[in-house]
Amino acid sequence: MSEQKVKVKxxxxxxxxxxxxxxxxxxxxxxxxxxxxxxxxxxxAIEAAMHGNSSVFLVAQRETDTEEPTIxxxxxxxxxxxxxxxxxxxxxxxxxxxxxxxxxRLLELDGSGKYLQVMxxxxxxxxxxxxxxxxxxxxxxxxxxxxxEYLSYSPQISKDVVYxxxxxxxxxxxSEYMPANLLFxxxxxxxxxxxxxxxxxxxxxxxxxxxxxxxxxxxxxxxxRVNVQMDKGQREYYLREQMHAISEELGDSEDTRAExxxxxxxxxxxxxxxxxxxxxxxxxxxxxxxxxxxxxxxxIRSYLDTCLALPWHVTTTDDLDQEHARKVLxxxxxxxxxxxxxxxxxxxxxxxxxxxxxxxxxxxGPPGVGKTSIAHSIAECMGRKFARMSLGGVHDEAxxxxxxxxxxxxxxxxxxxxxxxxxxxxxxxxxDEIDKLAADYKGDPSSALLEVxxxxxxxxFKDNYLDIPFDLSEVLFITTANNAETIPAPLLDRMDVIELxxxxxxxxFNIAKKHLLPKQLKNNGLAxxxxxxxxxxxxxxxGYTREAGVRNLERIITDVLRKCAKKIAAxxxxxxxxxxxxxxxxxxxxxxxxxxxxxxxxxxxANGLAWTSVGGEMLPVEVAVIPEGSGKIELTGSLGDVMKExxxxxxxxxxxxxxxxxxxxxxxxxxxxxxxxxxGAVPKDGPSAGVTLTTALISALSGVxxxxxxxxxxxxxxxxxxxxxxxxxxxxxAAFSEGIKTILIPKENVADLHxxxxxxxxxxxxxxxxDLSEVLxxxxxQPSRGSQHEPHPVPPATQLIAADPSASNKGSATVM
Length: 816
Prior knowledge:
By secondary structure, this protein is an alpha/beta fold. The protein has 6 domains: 111 residues, LON domain-like (Archaeosine Trna-guanine Transglycosylase, Chain: A, domain 4, Roll); 90 residues, Up-down Bundle (Methane Monooxygenase Hydroxylase, Chain G, domain 1); 56 residues; 178 residues, Rossmann fold (3-Layer(aba) Sandwich); 83 residues, Helicase, Ruva Protein, domain 3, CATH 1.10.8.60; 195 residues, 2-Layer Sandwich (Ribosomal Protein S5, domain 2), CATH 3.30.230.10. The chain is built from 27 helices and 24 strands. It has a 7-stranded mixed beta sheet with strand order 18-19-17-16-20-23-24. Strands 1-3-4-5-6 form a 5-stranded mixed β-barrel. β21 and β22 form a beta hairpin. α19 packs across α21.
C-alpha cells in the first residue's frame, strides 16, 4: 500500500509540457516577463500551450547561437510559466507575456515534433532549519545594504523595483525578485536559479551583487577621470580662445611673436622687390597674431620656409673658356661635332654679351645617343649647378606651376623645386622627354611651359604656391626629345633645335672603346683583369646590337664582363682577353640577323629608304607580275593611304611610258600586279617610296634587273617628276650601315647633304635625280628604252654642300 502511494506522488510531481528555449533570458517564479518568439517550434509551443492549460516550460539555452537545441544545449533548471497574453506581430514573430509559477527540473526532451516537448519535475527551493534563521536574517540585511550601494552606481533602476526590494523581508521573494529585475548576465541569473537551497541562493546573490558593485565602482572611476580630462580640455580651449581674442585686440602674440620676428629679419635681408617683400611680411604679421598650435600656423611656416629656401640673388659665375669647354666635351663625348660647335657658339656669345637671355636648346634625336649626358657636360663646362626634371607622362598643369595654398598638401611646382634643389638662381635645368607631355582635365602642362621657356615672360614667373614673381631669365633651359613632331608648335617655336643623328659603326666602336668599356670595367671590378679586343667590339656591334644610340651596346658589353667576372671569381682564370670568337661563346648565337634587302641584281626588287623616329631604315619593295590575270592590283605590307597612292602613281606611269621600256600594253592589261613591302607587321606610310615603287614595277614588267648596290628615295608626280623628301641624314645612315654604295636622291635635296655625316659622304656616292627617267637609267641594269637619256653628271659627294637645308622631315616612309 505504501509503495503505491509513493508512485502516485512521483507521478503527480512530473509534468509533460510544451517548452520554449530562451536566448539570453532567465525567468524566475512569481515574476511577470514579456519577450518575443520567432522560431517556428517556439511559436508552435505557444499555440499548443494555449490549446491546453496555458502552461509552458521556459528554459535558457547555454549558447545563444544554437538554432536546434538538444537536451545538452539547455540548462537543467527552468520555470513552469503561465501564458497571460499573446500578440502576433507578423507571421514569424509573436510577443508573449508570461508569469513564472514554479521552479522545475528538466528530465527529458523530445524535439521531433512541431514543438519542443519536455518532461519536467517540480523542484521547489528547500527551506532552512530553525537554528539557521539568524544567519538567513543577516544575509537579508547584507543583501539590502549591498543593494543600496548598487543603487549609488546605477540610479537608472525603476522606483518600483527599488521599493519592492527594500520593503520586502521575505528571503524567498528577494532570491527570485532581485536577479529577475537587476542587470546581471543571464549565466549569473541561471546560477542562482540552479541553486536549490534558500541559504545558498542568498549567498550567491550577495557575492554576485558585491562583484557588480566593484565593477560599477571601477567604471565610475574611469568615467570620472575621463570627465575631468574633458573638462580640463574644454577649460583650456576656453582660456586659449580668450587669450587669442585678447592677442588680436592687442595685436600681439607671445607664442609666435619671436618666430615671426626671425622670419621678418630673414625676409628683409633678402632685399626683394617691394611687392614681394610686402606680401611676405604680411604673412609674418599673420603668424605673429596666431597661437603656436593653431592649424594655420603650420601652413604659414611651410610657405615662408619655401620662399626663404629659394636662392634669391644667389648665382654662380659662368666659366666661358672655350678651351676648357672643348676639353670637357671631348672627354665625355665622341663625335657629335655639330652639337659641340653649337655649345661653343653659345659660350662665345655669352662671353661677348653677358646680358644675353633666352637661349633655350632642344636636343632631338633617337634614344641612347647621349642627349641627357650632353646636358650634364654643358653644366660642367660652364660651372653651373645642374637639375633635371623628367616630363614624360606629366599631365597636370600644377606639376609645372604648383598648387594654390588653399589646397591641403599644396606644394610648389617642379620648376621652383628644381631651382631650390640646385641652390642657385642661374642653374642649368634639363627638361627631359618634353615630347612626351600629356594633357587631361587637370590642364595642359605644355601650355604652362610656354611662360617658363619664354624669355619675355619668365623674368617674372609666378608659381601658384609662391604667388610672388621669381626671375627665371638667368636659368639655362635645355630640353630633350626623341621626335620634334610631337612637341606642340608654340613650345617648339621658343627653342633652338639641335638634331643628334644615329651613330655610325666607327663612332659606336670609338664610344665603346673610350667610354663605355672603361666605365663598365670599373663598375664590375675588372679594371686591369679583362680586355676586349677590337674584333670583339666589332663582333658585339655587328652581331648583337642594332640601334641608333649606344644604350644597348653598353648593356651587351656589361653582359660580357659579368660572364668574365664569373670565371675569374670561380678561379678558372686570373686575366681574360675576350676575342671575337669568345664573344660568340659567351653570348651565344648572333641576335642581329641581316636585314631583308636586295643583295643581288634581281627583277622586281628595289631597295628604298625610310625614316623613323629612331633613325633610318632600309625599305625594299617587291613587285610580282602574274600573267593571265585581269589587271588587278594587290597592295600588301601594312601600307598607309599615302603610300598606296604612290603605288597607283607608279602603275599609271608604267602604263603611260610602257613603250619606252619595251612593255606591251597587253601585258599590263592582262596581268595582275602584286606590290609588297616586307615586314608586314610594321606600318608604313609616306610619299618618299614613290621612286622605289616605280623602279621595282618597271623592272618586273620589263624583266630588267635592278642594281642591288643602289638605294633610292623620292616622291613622284603623275608626270614622273621627283620631289624632295625629308630625313635624308637618317636614310643615308641606314644605307651606309647596309653597305650600299650609291644613293639616288631628289635634286632638290642636294642642300641637305651638308648635314650628312662626313664618314657617310666619303663611303657613299649620292646621285641627284629630277625625274623618273634618270632614276630608271641609273637603277636598271640593262634598260631597254626607245630613247636613251644620259645620266646627269654628279659632282663628288663631299662637294655637295647646301646653304639652307629646308626639306627636312616633310614625310616618312615607315612609322614604327
